[in-house]
Amino acid sequence: MDNTYEIAIIGGGVCGTALLYTISNYTNIKSIALIEKEAKVALINSSKNSNSQTLHFGDIETNYTLAKATKVNAGASLVKNYLLTKDQGKAIYTKYHKMVLGVGKEQADQLRSRYQEFKQLFPDLQVLNQAEIAIKEPKVLEARETDEEIVALFTGEGYTVDFNLLAESFLENSINNSAKDIDLMFNTKVTRITRENELYQIKTKDKTIQAKIVAIAAGAHSLLFAKTLGYGLDYALLSVAGSFYFAPQLLNGKVYTVQRKKLPFAAIHGDPEVHNKAIARFGPTAKVLPMLERHKYSSIIEYFQTAGLSFKAVKSFIKILSDPIIFKYIALNFIYDFPIIGKRLFIKEVRKIVPSITLSNLTYAKGYGGVRPQIVNLNTQALEMGEAKIIGDKIIFNITPSPGASTCLQNALEDTARIINFLGDSYQFDRNQFLTDLSANSLIK
Protein backbone atom coordinates (compact mmCIF):
# COMPACT_ATOMS: atom_id res chain seq x y z
CA MET A 1 0.00 0.00 0.00
CA ASP A 2 1.13 3.57 -0.63
CA ASN A 3 2.56 5.31 2.44
CA THR A 4 2.88 2.01 4.33
CA TYR A 5 6.22 1.10 5.88
CA GLU A 6 7.70 -1.64 7.98
CA ILE A 7 9.24 0.94 10.30
CA ALA A 8 8.70 4.66 10.74
CA ILE A 9 11.26 6.70 12.67
CA ILE A 10 9.95 9.99 14.03
CA GLY A 11 12.74 12.43 14.79
CA GLY A 12 15.82 13.10 12.67
CA GLY A 13 18.31 14.02 15.37
CA VAL A 14 21.49 12.07 16.01
CA CYS A 15 19.56 9.26 17.76
CA GLY A 16 16.95 8.91 15.03
CA THR A 17 19.54 8.90 12.24
CA ALA A 18 21.72 6.42 14.18
CA LEU A 19 18.72 4.07 14.25
CA LEU A 20 18.17 4.62 10.51
CA TYR A 21 21.84 3.81 9.86
CA THR A 22 21.68 0.61 11.89
CA ILE A 23 18.44 -0.65 10.38
CA SER A 24 19.38 0.18 6.80
CA ASN A 25 22.82 -1.45 6.95
CA TYR A 26 22.38 -4.43 9.26
CA THR A 27 18.80 -5.73 8.88
CA ASN A 28 16.62 -7.08 6.08
CA ILE A 29 13.96 -4.46 6.73
CA LYS A 30 13.26 -2.91 3.33
CA SER A 31 10.80 -0.04 3.76
CA ILE A 32 11.71 2.75 6.17
CA ALA A 33 10.35 6.25 6.70
CA LEU A 34 12.28 8.97 8.50
CA ILE A 35 9.96 11.80 9.53
CA GLU A 36 11.46 15.11 10.67
CA LYS A 37 9.61 18.38 11.29
CA GLU A 38 12.62 20.53 10.36
CA ALA A 39 14.09 21.08 6.89
CA LYS A 40 17.20 18.98 7.62
CA VAL A 41 18.43 16.48 10.17
CA ALA A 42 19.75 17.44 13.60
CA LEU A 43 18.73 21.10 13.77
CA ILE A 44 17.38 21.06 17.34
CA ASN A 45 19.17 19.43 20.31
CA SER A 46 21.70 17.70 18.03
CA SER A 47 22.78 21.03 16.58
CA LYS A 48 26.29 22.07 17.61
CA ASN A 49 24.75 25.19 19.16
CA SER A 50 22.47 23.21 21.46
CA ASN A 51 24.78 20.82 23.34
CA SER A 52 28.22 20.70 24.89
CA GLN A 53 29.73 18.85 21.88
CA THR A 54 31.19 16.21 24.17
CA LEU A 55 31.55 12.50 23.58
CA HIS A 56 31.09 11.16 27.11
CA PHE A 57 32.88 7.96 28.13
CA GLY A 58 32.47 8.13 31.91
CA ASP A 59 36.17 8.47 32.72
CA ILE A 60 36.13 12.05 34.01
CA GLU A 61 32.38 12.43 34.68
CA THR A 62 32.53 12.09 38.45
CA ASN A 63 28.78 11.56 38.83
CA TYR A 64 29.06 8.22 36.98
CA THR A 65 29.37 5.01 38.94
CA LEU A 66 31.69 2.31 37.59
CA ALA A 67 28.65 0.35 36.37
CA LYS A 68 27.26 3.33 34.47
CA ALA A 69 30.70 4.28 33.11
CA THR A 70 31.15 0.72 31.83
CA LYS A 71 27.88 0.93 29.90
CA VAL A 72 28.47 4.47 28.62
CA ASN A 73 32.03 3.67 27.59
CA ALA A 74 30.82 0.76 25.48
CA GLY A 75 28.28 2.99 23.74
CA ALA A 76 30.60 5.97 23.25
CA SER A 77 33.30 3.68 21.87
CA LEU A 78 30.93 2.70 19.05
CA VAL A 79 30.57 6.38 18.14
CA LYS A 80 34.33 6.96 18.44
CA ASN A 81 35.11 4.04 16.14
CA TYR A 82 32.47 5.22 13.67
CA LEU A 83 34.11 8.66 13.63
CA LEU A 84 37.60 7.24 13.15
CA THR A 85 36.49 5.08 10.22
CA LYS A 86 33.77 7.18 8.57
CA ASP A 87 34.81 10.81 9.08
CA GLN A 88 36.53 10.89 5.66
CA GLY A 89 37.79 14.44 5.99
CA LYS A 90 34.43 15.94 6.97
CA ALA A 91 35.73 17.31 10.27
CA ILE A 92 32.90 15.81 12.29
CA TYR A 93 35.11 15.81 15.39
CA THR A 94 38.25 17.25 16.91
CA LYS A 95 40.41 15.34 19.36
CA TYR A 96 41.64 17.08 22.52
CA HIS A 97 42.95 15.97 25.88
CA LYS A 98 40.60 16.26 28.84
CA MET A 99 40.81 16.35 32.61
CA VAL A 100 38.69 16.68 35.72
CA LEU A 101 40.15 19.05 38.28
CA GLY A 102 40.11 18.39 42.01
CA VAL A 103 40.88 21.29 44.38
CA GLY A 104 41.38 20.64 48.09
CA LYS A 105 42.05 17.47 50.04
CA GLU A 106 38.51 16.11 49.81
CA GLN A 107 38.29 16.37 46.02
CA ALA A 108 41.91 15.23 45.56
CA ASP A 109 41.25 12.11 47.64
CA GLN A 110 38.03 11.53 45.71
CA LEU A 111 39.84 11.61 42.37
CA ARG A 112 42.67 9.35 43.55
CA SER A 113 40.13 6.87 44.84
CA ARG A 114 38.21 7.09 41.58
CA TYR A 115 41.40 6.42 39.63
CA GLN A 116 42.04 3.20 41.53
CA GLU A 117 38.49 2.05 40.84
CA PHE A 118 38.36 3.09 37.16
CA LYS A 119 41.91 2.54 35.88
CA GLN A 120 41.22 -0.97 34.59
CA LEU A 121 38.25 0.25 32.52
CA PHE A 122 40.20 3.29 31.29
CA PRO A 123 43.88 2.28 30.90
CA ASP A 124 44.78 5.70 29.43
CA LEU A 125 43.62 7.51 32.57
CA GLN A 126 46.36 9.25 34.60
CA VAL A 127 46.62 11.15 37.88
CA LEU A 128 48.38 14.50 37.42
CA ASN A 129 49.95 16.53 40.19
CA GLN A 130 50.03 20.31 40.22
CA ALA A 131 53.25 20.61 38.19
CA GLU A 132 51.96 18.20 35.55
CA ILE A 133 48.66 20.08 35.31
CA ALA A 134 50.60 23.31 34.71
CA ILE A 135 52.27 21.76 31.67
CA LYS A 136 49.00 20.58 30.12
CA GLU A 137 46.78 23.52 31.12
CA PRO A 138 48.81 26.52 32.36
CA LYS A 139 45.75 28.80 32.66
CA VAL A 140 44.20 26.42 35.18
CA LEU A 141 46.89 27.29 37.73
CA GLU A 142 47.76 30.84 36.69
CA ALA A 143 46.74 33.33 39.42
CA ARG A 144 45.20 30.57 41.51
CA GLU A 145 45.35 31.81 45.12
CA THR A 146 45.29 28.70 47.25
CA ASP A 147 47.65 26.48 49.17
CA GLU A 148 45.25 23.60 48.81
CA GLU A 149 46.23 20.39 47.10
CA ILE A 150 45.34 20.21 43.40
CA VAL A 151 45.22 17.04 41.32
CA ALA A 152 43.51 16.00 38.09
CA LEU A 153 42.44 12.86 36.29
CA PHE A 154 43.71 13.18 32.73
CA THR A 155 43.42 11.36 29.41
CA GLY A 156 44.30 12.18 25.84
CA GLU A 157 41.09 10.52 24.65
CA GLY A 158 38.85 13.57 24.49
CA TYR A 159 36.51 14.08 21.54
CA THR A 160 34.55 17.21 20.69
CA VAL A 161 31.86 16.26 18.19
CA ASP A 162 29.61 18.16 15.82
CA PHE A 163 26.56 15.95 16.30
CA ASN A 164 24.76 17.69 13.46
CA LEU A 165 27.46 16.52 11.03
CA LEU A 166 27.43 13.09 12.66
CA ALA A 167 23.68 12.81 11.99
CA GLU A 168 24.26 13.89 8.38
CA SER A 169 26.90 11.17 8.08
CA PHE A 170 24.50 8.55 9.46
CA LEU A 171 21.91 9.70 6.92
CA GLU A 172 24.35 9.62 4.00
CA ASN A 173 25.55 6.13 4.92
CA SER A 174 21.93 4.94 5.14
CA ILE A 175 20.46 6.18 1.87
CA ASN A 176 23.43 4.88 -0.12
CA ASN A 177 21.96 1.40 0.33
CA SER A 178 20.11 0.86 -2.97
CA ALA A 179 18.45 -2.33 -1.68
CA LYS A 180 16.27 -0.31 0.69
CA ASP A 181 13.22 1.85 0.15
CA ILE A 182 13.97 4.80 2.43
CA ASP A 183 11.66 7.79 2.33
CA LEU A 184 12.91 11.00 3.91
CA MET A 185 10.10 13.31 4.97
CA PHE A 186 11.44 16.70 6.02
CA ASN A 187 9.32 19.70 6.98
CA THR A 188 6.79 17.12 8.12
CA LYS A 189 5.32 17.57 11.57
CA VAL A 190 3.46 14.65 13.10
CA THR A 191 0.17 15.83 14.57
CA ARG A 192 -1.26 12.58 15.85
CA ILE A 193 -0.51 8.86 16.14
CA THR A 194 -3.24 6.23 16.40
CA ARG A 195 -3.41 2.49 15.85
CA GLU A 196 -5.87 0.70 13.57
CA ASN A 197 -5.85 -2.92 12.36
CA GLU A 198 -2.31 -3.66 13.55
CA LEU A 199 -0.92 -0.59 11.78
CA TYR A 200 0.04 2.73 13.30
CA GLN A 201 -1.54 5.72 11.59
CA ILE A 202 0.86 8.66 11.64
CA LYS A 203 -1.03 11.80 10.75
CA THR A 204 0.73 14.86 9.35
CA LYS A 205 -0.64 18.07 7.86
CA ASP A 206 -0.68 16.67 4.32
CA LYS A 207 -1.15 12.92 4.62
CA THR A 208 -1.39 9.85 6.79
CA ILE A 209 1.51 7.40 6.91
CA GLN A 210 1.08 3.80 8.02
CA ALA A 211 3.73 1.67 9.71
CA LYS A 212 3.95 -1.73 11.35
CA ILE A 213 6.49 -0.42 13.88
CA VAL A 214 7.14 3.10 15.13
CA ALA A 215 10.28 4.37 16.86
CA ILE A 216 10.05 7.90 18.23
CA ALA A 217 13.30 9.76 18.92
CA ALA A 218 11.91 13.26 19.34
CA GLY A 219 13.39 14.25 22.70
CA ALA A 220 10.86 15.78 25.06
CA HIS A 221 8.12 15.42 22.44
CA SER A 222 8.44 11.63 22.71
CA LEU A 223 6.66 11.66 26.07
CA LEU A 224 3.89 13.82 24.61
CA PHE A 225 3.29 11.21 21.90
CA ALA A 226 3.48 8.42 24.48
CA LYS A 227 0.76 9.97 26.61
CA THR A 228 -1.61 10.34 23.66
CA LEU A 229 -1.35 6.56 23.23
CA GLY A 230 -1.81 5.77 26.92
CA TYR A 231 1.85 5.23 27.82
CA GLY A 232 4.00 7.07 30.35
CA LEU A 233 1.05 8.40 32.35
CA ASP A 234 3.06 8.23 35.58
CA TYR A 235 5.76 10.52 34.18
CA ALA A 236 6.18 14.25 33.77
CA LEU A 237 9.08 16.37 32.58
CA LEU A 238 11.34 18.92 34.21
CA SER A 239 12.77 20.68 31.18
CA VAL A 240 16.27 21.96 31.89
CA ALA A 241 17.70 24.48 29.43
CA GLY A 242 21.45 24.80 29.15
CA SER A 243 23.18 28.04 28.16
CA PHE A 244 26.85 28.82 27.49
CA TYR A 245 29.41 31.61 27.63
CA PHE A 246 32.26 32.12 25.17
CA ALA A 247 35.82 33.19 25.95
CA PRO A 248 39.07 33.52 23.98
CA GLN A 249 41.35 30.49 23.82
CA LEU A 250 42.22 29.78 27.43
CA LEU A 251 42.32 26.01 27.41
CA ASN A 252 44.22 23.45 25.36
CA GLY A 253 41.60 20.78 25.96
CA LYS A 254 38.51 19.97 28.00
CA VAL A 255 38.58 20.80 31.71
CA TYR A 256 35.82 19.56 34.01
CA THR A 257 35.17 20.14 37.69
CA VAL A 258 34.06 17.60 40.25
CA GLN A 259 30.32 17.00 40.15
CA ARG A 260 28.40 18.52 43.04
CA LYS A 261 26.76 16.00 45.32
CA LYS A 262 22.98 15.59 45.14
CA LEU A 263 22.73 17.61 41.91
CA PRO A 264 21.60 15.77 38.78
CA PHE A 265 22.92 18.50 36.50
CA ALA A 266 26.41 18.61 35.01
CA ALA A 267 29.00 20.77 36.72
CA ILE A 268 30.38 23.71 34.74
CA HIS A 269 33.19 22.76 32.37
CA GLY A 270 35.28 24.38 29.67
CA ASP A 271 35.67 23.04 26.12
CA PRO A 272 37.35 24.29 22.96
CA GLU A 273 34.82 24.71 20.15
CA VAL A 274 34.65 21.72 17.83
CA HIS A 275 35.58 23.73 14.72
CA ASN A 276 37.54 26.57 16.31
CA LYS A 277 40.09 25.98 19.05
CA ALA A 278 40.48 29.76 19.44
CA ILE A 279 37.12 29.85 21.22
CA ALA A 280 36.47 28.26 24.61
CA ARG A 281 32.91 27.44 25.61
CA PHE A 282 31.97 27.40 29.32
CA GLY A 283 28.79 25.84 30.66
CA PRO A 284 26.22 24.55 30.55
CA THR A 285 24.01 26.41 32.96
CA ALA A 286 20.83 24.63 34.05
CA LYS A 287 17.71 26.76 33.85
CA VAL A 288 14.28 25.19 34.34
CA LEU A 289 11.88 26.33 31.60
CA PRO A 290 8.31 25.18 30.84
CA MET A 291 9.19 24.38 27.21
CA LEU A 292 9.76 21.25 25.16
CA GLU A 293 12.04 23.06 22.74
CA ARG A 294 14.47 25.91 23.42
CA HIS A 295 13.73 29.30 21.87
CA LYS A 296 10.33 28.03 20.64
CA TYR A 297 7.57 29.54 22.73
CA SER A 298 4.83 27.54 21.03
CA SER A 299 6.21 24.49 22.85
CA ILE A 300 5.07 25.95 26.20
CA ILE A 301 1.55 24.65 25.58
CA GLU A 302 2.98 21.27 24.60
CA TYR A 303 5.02 21.23 27.79
CA PHE A 304 1.94 21.57 29.99
CA GLN A 305 0.16 18.95 27.88
CA THR A 306 3.07 16.64 28.61
CA ALA A 307 3.65 17.53 32.25
CA GLY A 308 -0.01 17.74 33.09
CA LEU A 309 -1.50 19.89 35.82
CA SER A 310 -2.70 17.03 37.97
CA PHE A 311 -2.36 17.10 41.74
CA LYS A 312 0.35 14.41 41.53
CA ALA A 313 2.34 16.45 39.01
CA VAL A 314 2.15 19.70 40.98
CA LYS A 315 3.00 17.89 44.21
CA SER A 316 6.02 16.21 42.57
CA PHE A 317 7.39 19.49 41.21
CA ILE A 318 6.97 21.22 44.57
CA LYS A 319 8.75 18.40 46.37
CA ILE A 320 11.70 18.39 43.95
CA LEU A 321 12.11 22.16 43.78
CA SER A 322 11.70 22.67 47.52
CA ASP A 323 14.92 20.81 48.23
CA PRO A 324 17.22 23.66 49.43
CA ILE A 325 20.24 22.52 47.42
CA ILE A 326 18.32 22.03 44.18
CA PHE A 327 16.29 25.22 44.62
CA LYS A 328 19.37 27.37 45.25
CA TYR A 329 21.14 25.82 42.28
CA ILE A 330 18.21 26.34 39.89
CA ALA A 331 17.57 29.89 41.09
CA LEU A 332 21.22 30.84 40.61
CA ASN A 333 21.35 29.24 37.17
CA PHE A 334 18.25 31.17 36.14
CA ILE A 335 20.05 34.44 36.93
CA TYR A 336 23.11 33.41 34.87
CA ASP A 337 21.17 34.31 31.71
CA PHE A 338 20.41 37.86 32.90
CA PRO A 339 22.36 40.73 31.31
CA ILE A 340 25.19 42.26 33.40
CA ILE A 341 24.46 40.49 36.70
CA GLY A 342 24.41 37.04 35.08
CA LYS A 343 27.96 37.27 33.80
CA ARG A 344 29.22 38.65 37.13
CA LEU A 345 27.80 35.63 38.94
CA PHE A 346 28.76 33.06 36.32
CA ILE A 347 32.39 34.15 36.25
CA LYS A 348 32.76 32.81 39.79
CA GLU A 349 32.11 29.31 38.41
CA VAL A 350 34.46 29.81 35.47
CA ARG A 351 37.24 30.96 37.82
CA LYS A 352 37.18 27.53 39.41
CA ILE A 353 38.69 26.43 36.09
CA VAL A 354 40.53 29.56 34.88
CA PRO A 355 41.23 31.84 37.88
CA SER A 356 42.66 34.69 35.78
CA ILE A 357 39.65 35.15 33.51
CA THR A 358 38.13 38.64 33.47
CA LEU A 359 34.63 39.90 32.76
CA SER A 360 35.79 41.29 29.43
CA ASN A 361 36.83 37.77 28.40
CA LEU A 362 33.29 36.38 28.80
CA THR A 363 30.52 36.77 26.23
CA TYR A 364 27.06 35.29 26.59
CA ALA A 365 26.49 32.78 23.77
CA LYS A 366 23.22 34.17 22.48
CA GLY A 367 21.07 31.60 20.71
CA TYR A 368 23.09 28.67 22.06
CA GLY A 369 21.73 25.95 24.30
CA GLY A 370 19.09 23.25 24.09
CA VAL A 371 16.62 21.55 26.40
CA ARG A 372 17.37 18.41 28.37
CA PRO A 373 14.17 16.71 29.53
CA GLN A 374 14.59 15.26 33.02
CA ILE A 375 12.00 12.61 33.81
CA VAL A 376 9.87 13.09 36.94
CA ASN A 377 8.31 9.93 38.37
CA LEU A 378 4.89 10.97 39.67
CA ASN A 379 4.66 7.94 41.95
CA THR A 380 7.98 8.48 43.74
CA GLN A 381 7.86 12.27 43.27
CA ALA A 382 11.53 12.23 42.33
CA LEU A 383 13.77 12.87 39.34
CA GLU A 384 14.84 9.77 37.44
CA MET A 385 18.35 10.02 36.09
CA GLY A 386 19.76 8.28 33.07
CA GLU A 387 17.97 6.75 30.14
CA ALA A 388 14.26 7.44 29.71
CA LYS A 389 12.68 4.99 27.32
CA ILE A 390 9.17 3.60 27.11
CA ILE A 391 8.52 0.34 25.28
CA GLY A 392 4.96 -0.17 24.06
CA ASP A 393 3.19 -2.58 21.74
CA LYS A 394 5.38 -2.39 18.62
CA ILE A 395 6.29 1.18 19.45
CA ILE A 396 9.33 2.72 21.19
CA PHE A 397 9.54 6.16 22.76
CA ASN A 398 13.08 7.51 23.33
CA ILE A 399 12.92 10.56 25.56
CA THR A 400 16.45 11.03 26.91
CA PRO A 401 18.84 8.27 25.94
CA SER A 402 21.56 8.86 28.50
CA PRO A 403 23.95 10.51 28.01
CA GLY A 404 22.24 11.52 24.82
CA ALA A 405 24.26 11.61 21.63
CA SER A 406 27.25 9.77 23.14
CA THR A 407 25.32 6.50 23.26
CA CYS A 408 23.24 6.97 20.10
CA LEU A 409 24.66 3.87 18.38
CA GLN A 410 24.28 1.70 21.49
CA ASN A 411 20.70 2.92 21.75
CA ALA A 412 20.19 2.13 18.06
CA LEU A 413 21.64 -1.36 18.58
CA GLU A 414 19.23 -2.10 21.40
CA ASP A 415 16.21 -0.62 19.60
CA THR A 416 16.98 -2.48 16.38
CA ALA A 417 16.99 -5.77 18.30
CA ARG A 418 13.58 -4.85 19.76
CA ILE A 419 12.20 -3.89 16.36
CA ILE A 420 13.32 -7.19 14.80
CA ASN A 421 11.64 -9.01 17.67
CA PHE A 422 8.45 -7.01 17.04
CA LEU A 423 8.47 -7.92 13.32
CA GLY A 424 8.93 -11.67 13.75
CA ASP A 425 11.09 -14.60 12.64
CA SER A 426 11.41 -13.61 8.99
CA TYR A 427 13.45 -10.56 9.96
CA GLN A 428 17.13 -10.59 10.92
CA PHE A 429 19.60 -8.21 12.49
CA ASP A 430 23.30 -8.89 11.89
CA ARG A 431 24.35 -7.75 15.33
CA ASN A 432 27.76 -9.38 15.09
CA GLN A 433 28.62 -7.52 11.87
CA PHE A 434 27.46 -4.25 13.43
CA LEU A 435 29.76 -4.77 16.42
CA THR A 436 32.62 -5.95 14.21
CA ASP A 437 32.39 -2.89 11.96
CA LEU A 438 32.40 -0.56 14.95
CA SER A 439 35.01 -2.34 17.05
CA ALA A 440 38.53 -1.15 17.79
CA ASN A 441 39.77 -3.95 15.52
CA SER A 442 38.06 -2.27 12.56
CA LEU A 443 40.59 0.56 12.87
CA ILE A 444 43.49 -1.79 12.18
CA LYS A 445 44.15 -1.85 8.44
Provide a descriptive summary of the structure in words.
By secondary structure, the chain is α+β, with helices and mostly antiparallel strands. The protein is built from 13 helices and 20 strands. It has helices spanning 14-26, 66-86, 105-118, 130-136, 138-141, 163-175, 221-228, 299-307, 311-321, 324-335, 341-350, 408-423, 431-437; strands at 4-10, 31-35, 93-103, 126-128, 150-161, 181-185, 190-196, 199-204, 208-216, 235-241, 245-248, 254-257, 269-273, 276-283, 287-288, 363-364, 371-377, 382-384, 388-391, 395-400. Strands 1, 2, 6, 7, 8, 9, 19 and 20 form an 8-stranded mixed sheet that branches. A 4-stranded mixed sheet has the order 4-5-3-12. The protein is globular. The N and C termini lie far apart (45 Å). The model has no long low-confidence stretch (mean pLDDT 92).
Secondary structure elements and their pairing?
Blueprint: E1 4-10, H1 14-26, E2 31-35, H2 66-86, E3 93-103, H3 105-118, E4 126-128, H4 130-136, H5 138-141, E5 150-161, H6 163-175, E6 181-185, E7 190-196, E8 199-204, E9 208-216, H7 221-228, E10 235-241, E11 245-248, E12 254-257, E13 269-273, E14 276-283, E15 287-288, H8 299-307, H9 311-321, H10 324-335, H11 341-350, E16 363-364, E17 371-377, E18 382-384, E19 388-391, E20 395-400, H12 408-423, H13 431-437
Parallel strand pairs: 1-2, 1-9, 2-6, 3-12, 9-20
Antiparallel strand pairs: 3-5, 4-5, 7-8, 8-9, 10-15, 10-17, 11-14, 11-16, 13-14, 17-18, 19-20
